[in-house]
C-alpha cells in the first residue's frame, strides 16, 4: 500500500512538471510569441510574476491579470522583447514578441499614393491601420472622441 501511494505521488509530481513545461520551455528556448496588431492575447506563465518589462512599449503592452496570467496587446507592427521577473527579481520568462497583421481578412487599396485598408469580415469596411492615409484615421479618431464625450 505504501509503495502504491509513493507511485501515485510520483505520477502526480510528473504530471505537475509537464503542466508547466511549455511555459518554461518557451522562456528557455526564447521562441517568439506572436500577437496580432490591435488584439490581445492571454499568456500563462509557470511562476508568479511580480514585474513585467516590454522593451518597446510602442510595439506591445503587457499587464498582469493575476500572478500567473498576463495580457499581451499588440500595438504596432514589429518585434520587441518581454521579460517577466518574480518577486525576488529572478527571470520567469525572457522572450521575443512579434506583432503582426492578420492578412486573411484585410484588403489594401491604393488611390494614387494614398493607401487604405479595409477589413472584409463579413463585408468590407475601412479600418484604421498603421501606414494608411491619415485622412480616414483623423476622421475616425474625431468621431470616436465625439462619441466618447457624448456618452459621459
Q: What is the count of structural domains? A: 2
Counting DSSP H or I runs of 4 or more residues, the number of helices is: 2
Number of strands: 10
Indicate the proportion of strand residues: 35-45%
Low-confidence stretches: 3-29
The end-to-end distance, rounded to whole angstroms, is 67 Å
| Mean pLDDT, all residues | 80
- Series of secondary-structure elements, N-terminal to C-terminal: HEEEEEEEEEEH
CATH class of the largest domain: Mainly Beta
Strand order of the main beta sheet, please?
A: 1-7-6-3
Q: In which range does the helix fraction lie?
A: 25-40%
Per CATH, what is the topology of the largest domain? Immunoglobulin-like
Q: Please give the largest β-sheet.
A: 4 strands, mixed
Helix/strand/pairing class, anyone? alpha+beta
CATH architect. name of the largest domain: Sandwich
Question: What integer value in Å does the Rg equal?
Answer: 22 Å
What is the overall silhouette?
A: elongated
Q: Can you tell me about this structure?
A:
The protein has helices at residues 2-29, 134-151, and strands spanning 33-36, 40-44, 51-54, 60-66, 69-74, 78-85, 91-100, 106-111, 114-120, 124-127. The protein is of the alpha+beta class. It folds into two domains: 2-100, Sandwich (Immunoglobulin-like), CATH 2.60.40.1080; 103-151, no CATH class. It starts with a helix and ends with a helix. Mean pLDDT is 80; it is low at 3-29.
